[in-house]
From TrEMBL:
Its cofactor is FAD. InterPro entries: FAD-linked_oxidoreductase-like, PRODH_bac_arc, Proline_DH_dom, Proline_oxidase. Gene3D superfamilies: 3.20.20.220. This is proline dehydrogenase. Binds 1 FAD per subunit. It comes from Geodermatophilus obscurus. Keywords: FAD, Flavoprotein, Nucleotide-binding, Oxidoreductase, Proline metabolism. The keyword Nucleotide-binding applies. It catalyses: L-proline + a quinone = (S)-1-pyrroline-5-carboxylate + a quinol + H(+).
Length: 303
């Protein structure tokens, strides 16, 4: 029920306008989003770095409808990359290909992606690519394959919930791909994705072992205690030390666990969303965990 309301809320432009223009809502969103400006994201990354945690800067916004939107996203990412290098921060950037024009003009998207990858390489900053809904998966894999040939440090997010994922990874195996394994944040039809939590977890575990065998420097993007424990055991089975893989968290979630893992010698990186398009991101996080909705509503009510 709560989920259905949130799916409706995410799609309602009227509600979006009312929430995003409300100063109290904007302040409450700060728990999960660093802010609307790059400067705020850089400050969040610096604060995490001081706790020995790396950052992943993510400019919010997806699915641009014209190329000027894509050009704007490229400029914002280039500014972020430059600032990370200038300030000597330990941070990557994570991009969404739909933000670079993937569904508007594929050639332009390729050019935009290469521009970001070249700039990042020149400045020693690493780039990660988010995975979006299942309609974009085949093309995202194909763009990643080309990008990884020239920029092998690029990391791709892969969703454990999708039925196709084991075969997709097999096809990428010759590249020894750098992967961020996540459960998958999008509502997908039963033909495309496992729907049960148990099944998604089982596939996540299978893919964790696979990545220690066939991937490079795997990253596990999850807050799930059982999957984190599984990854540590899988690493030990594969003879890998804590410096050979990393855990990734979303900003503002399980901060206790982030620190605990760092204190135990693990590498941890936190995904830091910033930008004015924070509303769909926030509703996705609330759908995952209704307690966050309660937190948000309490903040709105001033309690
Ligand atoms: C760094 C990172 C990058 C990601 N990139 C992508 C991507 O590119 N594409 C994509 O589809 N998905 C991405 N995701 C989202 C991912 O697919 C899941 O939707 C999200 O991580 C929730 O799943 P979970 O593994 O944490 O497990 P869950 O079963 O959702 O949660 C396990 C436990 O974690 C805690 N928790 C989880 N979510 C929250 C929350 N919102 N608030 C508070 N506590 C919470 C709770 O204790 C919960 O019991 C990313 C996630 C991370 C961490």
């Amino acid at each position: 029920m709560v989920n259905r309301v949130l799916v409706w809320a995410a799609a309602s432009p009227r509600l979006q306008r009312q929430v995003t223009e409300n100063p109290i809502a904007r302040r409450a969103a700060h728990r999960f989003v660093a802010g609307e400006r790059l400067e705020e994201a850089l400050e969040a990354a610096a604060a995490l770095n001081s706790r020995r945690i790396g950052g992943i800067l993510d400019l919010l916004g997806e699915g641009v409808t014209d190329l000027s939107g894509a050009t704007h996203a490229v400029e914002e990412y280039e500014d972020a990359i430059q600032a990370i290098a200038d300030r000597g921060l330990d941070s990557t950037v994570s991009i969404k290909l739909s933000q670079l024009g993937q569904t508007v003009d594929r050639d332009a998207c390729v050019a935009n992606l290469n521009e970001i990858l070249d700039r990042a390489k020149a400045l020693g900053v690493r780039v990660e690519v988010d995975m979006e809904d299942s309609s974009l998966v085949p093309d995202t894999l194909s763009l990643f394959r080309d990008a990884a040939a020239t920029h092998p440090q690029t990391r791709l997010a892969i969703q454990a919930a999708l039925r196709r994922t084991p075969l997709d990874l097999e096809a990428l195996a010759p590249l020894k791909p750098r992967i961020r394994l996540v459960k998958g944040a999008y509502a997908e039809p039963v033909e495309a994705a496992q729907q049960g939590k148990k099944e998604v977890r089982a596939q996540f575990m299978y893919l964790t072992d696979w990545l220690f065998q066939h991937g490079s420097d795997p990253a596990f993007g999850t807050h799930d205690d059982e999957l984190i424990a599984y990854a540590r055991q899988a690493a030990a089975r594969a003879g890998r030390g804590p410096e050979e893989f990393e855990f990734q968290f979303l900003y503002g979630i399980r901060r206790d666990l982030q620190q605990q893992l760092v204190d135990q010698g693990h590498r941890v990186r936190v995904y830091i969303p910033f930008g004015s398009a924070w509303y769909p991101y926030l509703t996705r996080r609330m759908a995952e965990r209704p307690a966050n909705l309660l937190f948000f509503l309490r903040a709105l009510a001033g309690r």
